[in-house]
Model the fold of this input.
Amino acid sequence: MNVEDARLYCLSKSGATEDFPFDESVLVFRVENKIFALVDLNNTKWFCVKCDADRAIALRDSYWQITPAWHMNKKYWNQLDIEHLPDTLFYELVDHSYCEVLKKLPKYIRCKYGL
Done:
């Protein structure tokens, strides 16, 4: 997986947008203005995604390519070594992150996304 393929997958999610809210190198992906993924374009090997707290720990224990995300709440955020993580697992974790963000939104917004 390369960063451009990862970017395109994130943007393929319904309502997904991208921006640079922190500086010119940290690319953030949002849904309903809530962050579900980000990547530092100065180090594109690592891609950060949100995760259920219990699942985050289990993933870190099972895959050396998944570690607590630097500069993020390590209880909920993992960083993925996208150069070595299987593509199917990357897609699954982006989907999970996207859903984790959506499920915290009000019901009238979740309905727009079929949740």
About this structure: Strands lie at 16-19, 26-31, 34-40, 46-50, 66-68, 77-81. The helical segments are 3-11, 53-62, 87-102, 107-110. The first helix runs from residue 3 to 11.
